[in-house]
């Protein structure tokens, strides 16, 4: 189809607003789609941070009477690579101090159903006959529960475009009390098991999974895992029923943002052909994090949300043994208060060997990818995961639990895979502290064999994780969905 037009509705987009990988994907995939000729526009809520960075913009629509919602406006701006951006401005819902989903105290905003109900609603309006814009999307690409009601509203609308619902993480479901159905003016008939109802609640996620014309998720392996317990998180039955309309597409990475040869956050640039700069980054990182300056000490890095999903409790458990190996560890993360405290305590107990920064820092995340020798990511589950992709590009082999996208993107280092040039990290099965420790131990042993370590790093850096291939796979899905409609 010539000039395929897609509305990409998302609750976060880098660099404007980011809590995790969804923002990275929303920042990069639309640009990659445009590069292959798809006319994509991004729709995002006008959070304080977004409005502050918007720059030149026009008001392109007003929504004064969407039933159940406060008045809102649509502002049009532009992102990098000339990707058009539509910002949904509704100050009473979005212009606040705090994050997109939670207040500064770390609690979910009490009116999230309304906040993301509006985002979902406007995405649906822009995809049907009611759209006030000249530009009409052929298809709406929704992301996670925050846009889950879009496919439901489109289902009941006139002249509606089909929808694709992308799962980035099934753990987050957007479940709200049943009264919400009335408050948001959803058709009462949709509150049923064949609809948006989920154990007596309104589930935004289930709405997306049930009504979308097609479902995607961010790795082929996760697409299989979620059709069963435990990783289906209650949606496995529905997902298994829809398995023929479920496609796993591995995320790519923004190779302009994440390239050690041009990364402005680094102490020194480097590349596969000129690796010398990596040592300077290690030294800078050791110095910055208060670690002993030792070029030969294996340095492990972590950049992560500190939540149960990420499995870092196992790493904290074995950290004293790691320090004894010896090895060094740097951790950057924020999240659950208890884990933040554990990370801080650990770095106090092992000065010179374990360094931590509790918080969110784009700079430091790049510096860790570059300065560490290896990257640890023992996630209990991981739909795709981006840090293990970044770390491979930065010649910092990842150590991962072989789940979801981690299993799809990291090839475990064995004598065979090292020989055939596919090895790109270390992976373990069986989510135990012992298995994690044994795998880190294995990685450190290889680190001390410099010839093999160099070969492993070279493999990592030769891998192509650019978005182009994934963008083509999304375009194929769009075309298939549109073909089916006709
Ligand atoms: P998830 O989206 O589940 O958190 P991903 O690996 O897909 O996991 O993406 C996480 C993204 O967020 C990466 O870009 C990572 O660098 C970034 N990130 C996570 N925690 C932090 C932090 N504390 N500071 C800076 N960046 C972070
Ligand atoms: C989610 C997942 C992560 C994935 C990201 C982007 O946050 O937890 O695995 O990489 O979305 O798709």
Features:
single chain, 6-stranded parallel beta sheet, 9-stranded mixed beta sheet, Rossmann fold, alpha/beta, 486 residues, binds adenosine-5'-diphosphate
Structure characterization notes:
The protein has helices spanning 21-35, 48-53, 91-94, 112-126, 149-156, 179-183, 204-211, 220-225, 236-241, 276-288, 312-324, 337-349, 362-371, 387-393, 404-409, 415-419, 433-447, 450-462, 467-485, and strands at residues 5-9, 39-45, 58-63, 72-78, 84-89, 139-143, 163-167, 175-176, 197-198, 201-203, 214-217, 246-248, 299-306, 328-335, 354-358, 374-377, 398-401, 426-428. The chain has 486 residues and is an alpha/beta fold. The chain has two domains: 5-252 and 467-485, Glycogen Phosphorylase B (Rossmann fold, 3-Layer(aba) Sandwich), CATH 3.40.50; 276-462, 3-Layer(aba) Sandwich (Rossmann fold), CATH 3.40.50. It has a nine-stranded mixed beta sheet with strand order 3-4-5-2-1-6-7-11-12, with helices on both faces. Strands 15-14-13-16-17-18 form a six-stranded parallel beta sheet, sandwiched between helices. Helix 1 (21-35) links the parallel strand 1 (5-9) and strand 2 (39-45). The protein is globular and about 65 Å long. The termini are close together. Bound molecules: adenosine-5'-diphosphate and alpha-D-glucopyranose. Alpha-D-glucopyranose (GLC) binds at residues 20-22, 25, 168-169, 218, 251, 382-386, 405.
């Amino acid at each position: 189809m010539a000039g395929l037009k897609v509305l990409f509705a998302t609750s976060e987009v880098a660099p404007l607003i980011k809590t995790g990988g969804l923002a990275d994907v929303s920042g990069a995939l639309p640009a990659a789609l445009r590069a292959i000729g798809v006319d994509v526009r991004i729709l995002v809520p006008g959070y304080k941070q977004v409005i502050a960075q918007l720059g030149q913009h026009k008001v392109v629509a007003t929504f004064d009477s969407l039933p159940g919602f406060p008045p809102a406006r649509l502002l049009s701006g532009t992102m990098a690579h000339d990707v058009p951006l539509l910002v949904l401005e509704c100050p009473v819902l979005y212009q606040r101090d705090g994050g997109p989903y939670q207040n500064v105290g770390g609690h979910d905003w009490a009116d999230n159903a309304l906040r993301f109900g509006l985002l979902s609603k406007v995405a649906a309006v822009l995809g049907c006959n009611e759209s006030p814009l000249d530009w009409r999307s052929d298809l709406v690409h929704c992301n996670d529960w925050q846009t889950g009601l879009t496919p439901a509203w489109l289902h009941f609308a006139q002249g509606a475009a089909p929808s694709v619902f992308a799962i980035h993480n099934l753990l987050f479901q957007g479940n709200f009390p049943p009264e919400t159905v009335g408050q948001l003016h959803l058709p009462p008939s949709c509150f049923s098991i064949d609809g948006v109802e989920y154990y007596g609640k309104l589930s935004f996620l289930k709405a997306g999974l049930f009504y979308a014309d097609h479902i995607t998720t961010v790795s082929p392996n996760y697409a299989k895992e979620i059709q069963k317990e435990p990783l289906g998180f209650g949606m496995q039955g529905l997902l298994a029923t829809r398995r023929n309309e479920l496609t796993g597409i591995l995320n790519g990475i923004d190779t302009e943002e994440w390239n050690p040869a041009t990364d402005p956050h680094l102490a020194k640039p480097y590349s596969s052909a000129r690796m010398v700069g990596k040592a300077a980054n290690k030294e800078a990182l050791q110095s910055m994090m208060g670690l002993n300056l030792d070029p030969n000490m294996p340095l492990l890095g972590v950049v992560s949300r500190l939540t149960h999903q990420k499995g870092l409790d196992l790493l904290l458990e074995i950290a004293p043994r790691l320090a004894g190996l010896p090895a060094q560890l740097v951790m950057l993360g924020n999240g659950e208060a208890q884990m933040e405290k554990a990370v801080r305590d650990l770095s106090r107990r092992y000065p010179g060997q374990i360094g931590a920064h509790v918080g969110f820092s784009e700079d430091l995340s790049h510096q860790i990818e570059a300065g560490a020798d290896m990257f640890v990511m023992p996630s209990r589950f991981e739909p795709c995961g981006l840090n293990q992709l970044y770390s491979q590009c930065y010649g910092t082999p990842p150590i991962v639990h072989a789940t979801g996208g981690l299993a799809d993107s990291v090839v475990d280092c064995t004598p065979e895979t090292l020989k055939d040039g596919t090895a790109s990290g270390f992976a373990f099965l069986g989510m135990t502290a012992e298995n994690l420790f044994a795998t880190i131990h294995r990685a450190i042993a290889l680190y001390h064999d410099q010839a093999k370590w160099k070969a492993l790093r070279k493999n990592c850096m030769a891998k192509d994780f650019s978005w182009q291939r994934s963008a083509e796979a999304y375009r194929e899905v769009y075309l298939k969905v549109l073909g089916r409609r006709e």
